């Protein structure tokens, strides 16, 4: 499986009055991590639009399990990978580490979306391109 790791320093604006990360900020970090995963794998947002005719990879479900809090100034590592791919949907997993300890498990279900060929004003799920499947699954 293709995995991307990125280091993130917790900023003042990420934290609530108790000085711990306000949980919606993690979901923004997860979104950035998914975009970065595609970019690092060689599929930039421009490629998604121009080469594959997609308009995006919207999230249709998300959740997280929180084990260890982070505070202003902490460094965390977000490890992101695609766990499974179906026709147009896929499951993303984010493991967040604080040092060596697993701090958070984040989960997303996303869908590849393009314009509906019958009605271009509407969106429609699009099949996962074979070269993307191969890159993300290693097969």
TrEMBL record:
This is Acyl-CoA thioesterase. It comes from the Bacteria. GO terms for molecular function: fatty acyl-CoA hydrolase activity. The keyword Cytoplasm does not apply. Signal peptide: none annotated. Keywords: Hydrolase. The keyword Calcium does not apply. InterPro entries: 4-hydroxybenzoyl-CoA_TE, HotDog_dom_sf.
């Amino acid at each position: 499986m293709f995995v991307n790791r990125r280091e993130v320093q917790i900023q003042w604006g990420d934290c609530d009055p108790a000085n711990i990360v306000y949980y919606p900020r993690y979901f923004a970090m997860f979104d950035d991590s998914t975009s970065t995963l595609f970019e690092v794998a060689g599929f930039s947002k421009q490629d998604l639009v121009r080469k594959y005719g997609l308009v995006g990879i919207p999230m249709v479900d998300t959740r997280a399990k929180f084990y260890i809090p982070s505070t202003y100034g902490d460094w965390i590592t977000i490890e992101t990978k695609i766990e499974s791919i179906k026709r147009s949907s896929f499951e993303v997993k984010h493991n967040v580490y604080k040092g060596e300890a697993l701090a958070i498990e984040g989960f997303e279900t996303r869908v590849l979306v393009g314009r509906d060929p019958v009605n271009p004003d509407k969106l429609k799920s699009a099949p996962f391109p074979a070269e993307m499947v191969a890159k993300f699954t290693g097969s």
